[in-house]
Every structure is written in structure tokens, then in C-alpha cells.
Amino acid sequence: MRSREGFTITEVLIVLVIIGIVGGFAFMQVGAALASSRAQRAASVIASDLKLAHSLAGRQRQPVRISIDTANRVFRIRDYTTPSTVYVERYFHSAGEYPIDVMQVTDTSLLVYPNGLAEGGITITVRALDERRTVQMTRAGLVRLDVP
Question: What gap in Å lies between CA 115 and CA 94, rounded to an integer?
Fold first, then answer.
């Protein structure tokens, strides 16, 4: 009797099905981790830019305006006296540096004064897939990043 070499088609198919199932679970986990990372990174950048707006206003001794375009997901810090001067411009849409799916704000425009105060507080919520992060800034310039 000859010894058998190789595998049967049934054995190969069973191994391929097992690899497919394990790969599917791994793909779902990687997708969730990427969404969490994108939301966290975008929220961290927004928090640091809000602090930067207060710093710029104090250094230049003139107000700066924070403007947020939620439809296009663009965050800008502009000079108050010459609005064409843009200090920071961040893109959070799918082709931008920090892609997220949704950006919601309580106020789309906010003035930051050189004395360290702002016109009011603001809350910015970013979402990538099911991951959501919230950045809050008080009128006094305290910035808080909420992580669920």
C-alpha cells in the first residue's frame, strides 16, 4: 500500500473556513480600534487648538476668532481685526488630516480676548463610526476632554 501525500479538498476547505472566521473577527476589532484612535486624535487636536487660541490672543494682545464649519468639518483660528489672516486651519473631513464622520458644536464662532476670557463656553463633539469624544471649553479658557 502506498502512503498518501498531500491534503484532500475537504481538509483544505475546512482550514480556509477557519482562517476566514478568525480573519473576520480580527478585521472587526481593527476597525473599532482605528475608529477609536481617529476620534481620540481629532479631539486631542481640537483641545490643543482651543488652548492655542487663548495663547495667541494673549501674546498678540488682540482678540482671535475661533470659527468652526460643521458641514465641511473645518476648524480655524483667525485674527479678529483682519479675518483673512488664518493662524490655524484643520480639516477633519474624510480627505483631511484627522478624518472623522461627524462634528457637532454648540457655537460655530467664538471670540477669545487677550485677557484670557472668551465670549462664552463651547462644546465640540466628534464622532468616528461609533466612537465619540467631547471637548469642552469654559469661558475662562479651561479645556476638558471627555473620554467615555
Answer: 36
What's 15-62 look like in SS3? HHHHHHHHHHHHHHHHHHHHHHHHHHHHHHHHHHHHHHHHHHHHHHCC
What is the C-alpha to C-alpha distance for residues 75 and 66, in angstroms, rounded to an integer?
8
Distance in angstroms (rounded) separating the CA atoms of residues 25 and 103: 29
Closest by Cα among 77, 131, 146, 137 to 105 = 137
d(C-alpha 27, C-alpha 9), whole Å: 26
Q: Which residues pair with 123 in a beta bridge?
A: 136
**Which residue has cell 484532500?**
8
Nearest to 145 by CA among 33, 36, 8, 42: 42
Per residue in 47-91, pLDDT tens?
999 999 999 999 999 999 999 999 999 999 999 999 899 999 999
Q: In order of start, what are the domains of the chain with their CATH numbers?
A: 9-146 (3.55.40.10)
* Reported pTM: 0.81
CA neighbours closer than 13 Å in the CB half-sphere of residue 45: 21
Residue with cell 466612537: 131
